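Putative TetR-family transcriptional regulator structure dump, as promised
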Amino acid sequence: MPTGVALRDVREQLFDAADRILLTSGPEALTSRAVTTEAGCAKGVLHRHFADFDAFLADYVLDRAHRMDAQAARLAEAAGAGTVVENVAAALTALFESVAVAIVALVTFRDELRARLRTTWPAGVPVLTEGAQMIAGYLEDERARGRIRADADPEVLGAMLIGTGHLLFADRTGARPSPDAVRDLVTKVLR
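structure tokens r here:
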């Protein structure tokens, strides 16, 4: 690779390359060499911006978890409109059709990454924890509007929906679940 070429948004280029690798080849294929090759830059670029590869991965995972803020805002805006089942099913599908399932596999695949994440993310797996909180917040709004049962526990339901949704979407090599399957899952959990 040529050196001395200015790169724009290096972090984002590297993170996008990691997305593509995770989605096509899984966590075992994610190496610093694979990321820089996919990003079209010299290997040294990654190490100039991050202390080491696990530091890169930790920043990458946290960046992708924080990207859920926009999705959480869209879900919160949907409160009171449409149906609760449709809104939650759409949120689960958007979450799990993103790089989220691959990130869960990455976090469970790399011990050092989990250890680094624990310094800033004390519990759960980033992306899944954010997803559960996003859905719980939405369900709390819907409960206040009387659109779900008054005795429902939004936090428990959010965690259940993320867990069962993850199981439904977890096989990245198989067929994606149908919209009907996702709606059925949400209906059963909310019942």
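Residues 1-6 have pLDDT under 50 and may be disordered.
lmk if u need the other ones
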